[in-house]
Amino acid sequence: MSKFYITTPLYYVNDEPHIGHAYTTILADVLARYHRSFGDDVYFLTGTDEHGQKVQQASEKRNVDPKSHVDEFVIRFKNIWEKLHISNDDFIRTTEKRHTDKVKEVLNALWEKDEIYLAEYEGLYSVSEERFITEKEAEEGNFREIKKIKEKNYFFKMSKYQSKLIEHIQNNPDFILPKKRANEVLGFLKQPLNDLCISRPKSRLEWGVEIPFDAEYVTYVWFDALLNYITAIGYSADDEKFNKWWPASYHLIGKDILTTHSVYWITMLMAMEIELPKSIFAHGWWLMEDEKMSKSLGNVIRPLELADKYGVGPLRYFLMRDMVLGQDASYSFSSFMSRYNSDLANDFGNLVNRVTILIRKNFDAKVPIPGVLGNAEEDILKLTNETSEKVKSAILELKIHDAIELIMNVFRSLNKYLELRAPWKQIKESKEDGSPSATCLFTSVNVLFKTALLLHPIMPSKIDSVLSMLGQKCPKNIFDVDLIKENTPLGDGKSPFPRIEV
Ligand code: MSP
Fold first, then answer.
1. pLDDT tens digits, residue range 149-159?
2. Which domains does the chain have, with CATH numbers?
3. How far apart, in whole angstroms, are the C-alpha atoms of residue 73 and residue 90?
């Protein structure tokens, strides 16, 4: 059994959960579910980033202590993941003791190994980003609230790992994906790498993990947060759980946090002498298409509200289908709606209704007894089996949109097959056991069953409804199932994808 350890970024607890957070978490969930189905042993981690200046400021504004503030705000993330059918195995908060204790242990160990030093530094500091920036970065104009600050701080000797990092990226083509992101990091590493300031004096910021060897300071929020990927699984060199799961199979991140993950995090691991994660995957951004929204048009909809209105499954489907992993994608209600209507309501949903209604009406709601399968039946069953294999490969290559297209292609082919055979006409001739209509519907219900299963990780609850219409339940391995036997009773219900009419 292989193991599969997948992580999402830790979301800033202050933020209102939005489509960007939902996308990464759903992506991780879909991959975790597919891998469980492959028979892998899966650990799926998400959580919240709860220290730092923004949290301190927000809690001051509300006149509550920061801990009560984060305890209150974290619930929004926990609730939304439950609502979106996220099957995470763990949820880590950076304010938990299991995390803060380990952060201190790591800091002590690095201090003792001489990987950290105290120095006075004068430089430009971006208050909004909570970090020192270079002159060049300041000139590029992407940072707000820039101040000149001169203070004593602790620094991690990041620069010393520059060539080792470059070498690792060059020697491991899957380490940073997609490839263009690896090139970006290598481009960044052409400049000399600075050491990383990893402390903040308490005079400026109190809400953080105290530096264990100097009570005047707290830890820089990124240095604290990145460690979650090992603290959640109980990091210590001889810990059984840690050794079972580490190294991570994938750190899923957005492209904006590529440097922190591929430079800060990786050099931290190098200094700790811990094995490196297998892969960091940076996805693109969802952009809101400039769509006119107006109350009179009735299209004032925020992405997460789609889940309430049209179901969690369709939202998950849309996000997985419309973003080519690694590239940016644009969201608009009309793109959601046309994707929903054409793929889910028409190609898939109508098919489910058509096949089940014909069987209910004409075959006593039981899977018909087929005769000898003809070429058209053999062909569509072959396509179905081949698609299973191809979907598996696409998932292993993180090409989820391709996997979905392969699946939809089977539904479209099945629709064509039905038009060709026209069982509604065949039935008028005969609906005896072994008749052409029985053969056609036996084939159709099975193609539908095997192919719908492949979508289970993407829309678990909607596919459960479809399976229950077919009298079936989702097996553990969705890639290798037997045909539904003749005479098996179907269930009730109709397609869970009614057309959206605007
Ligand atoms: N707290 C840090 C991560 C620490 S990881 C140890 C952080 N949090 S965040 O809440 O601001 O962002 C989390 C993720 O959301 C990032 O991966 C970011 O790329 C993603 N997104 C934010 N807006 C997005 C879109 N519009 N589209 C897709 N993802 C985007 O950064």
1. 899 999 999 99
2. 333-469 (1.10.730.10)
3. 18
